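This is your field. Pick holes in the following sequence-structure pair:
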Amino acid sequence: MKRAQIIWMTAMMAVSGAALAVASPRAHNALALLAAQDDPAGLSDIRLDSALRNNRNIISDQIEAALKDHDAGLAESFVDLAREKGISLPDDLSQRVSDAVAEQSTSSHFARRFASGLVTGNADDVASLSGTVAGDLFVFGDIRDIVREGKHLIMGEDTDHLVLGLATAGLAVTAATYVTVGGAGPVRAGLTLVKDARKVGRLGEGLTEWAGRSAREMVDAPMLQNAVATGSVMRPGQTASAIRAAFHAEKAGALVRLAKDVGRVGERAGTRGALDTLRIAEGPQDVARAARLAESKGGQTRAILKLLGRSGLWLAAGAFNLSLWVFGALFALFGFLSSVKATTERMAQSWLDRKKAQRLRRQLAAAAPAMVSAPVSG
């Protein structure tokens, strides 16, 4: 019976030990993720380390893809990430990235992209954003967008209320930029980036829905219709004043905070880093966390967002699921220690019982001759 119990407890120890061996790595990773869930930089580091363990060539592959797409900024971001993670890259690949960055930094390329941003109002790099922001700072860009969307509103046509609201808010922020001598510059750039991302379809669906609701609340439609009907791009000062009168600044706080966070991402991760953030963001909280990530990771931000997407900002799995792995590992550890304890106790008891039986047999063997030779009374 005792032998069967020992065999059973040994089997339980083996099973719980195997379960502990399987659950421990996942539990360790789950604990790290849970500890870093409020730290986008720490969370992304854990995700990246896991991805790099699975594929050491992922960074070089991404660099090749970025160069093929003529995105030197993204390629350079991956080079920065490789340097941070201690991953060596082929010399020729690093040189190709340097050449591509140098080519896109030439004065002729900058001037061409600046003019494109100024005229079209669309930005996808530093040069075009500079042109777009310049147009918005001189109120030309915002008035152009307001007049275009406002006329759609007057005519009963499809109107992009988000672009309309962003441009209207931009006029107020532009005035503040002049008053503070550039102090509101990041917010101004952030509004421009959100507006441009919306125009070219690079604004996440969830963020678009949220920002659209916010923009509708900021604008007095009848007053704006009158301002647009009587205004003109050729009279920017007069038109801007009339349009600003239709803007409810007290309702713009959430959108301005979003623009500020976008501007923070743009300052540390570049224009395309901000646009990448807007594409994956489902709400303002995502952008706020991306701003914290950019402040910590700087030029690596684009590479991190490219590899991890939104999971670099939030836990991909719920905290409950991760907690299950932790409790599972603790349960397996408890079972393993309990079975070790029970097996040890039963083996020790079996050894003691065996020793007692051996001692009793020796005592009986020693007493047997004396009992045989003893005289029988009677």
Notes: The longest helix spans residues 319-373. Residues 151 and 157 are 8 Å apart (CA to CA).
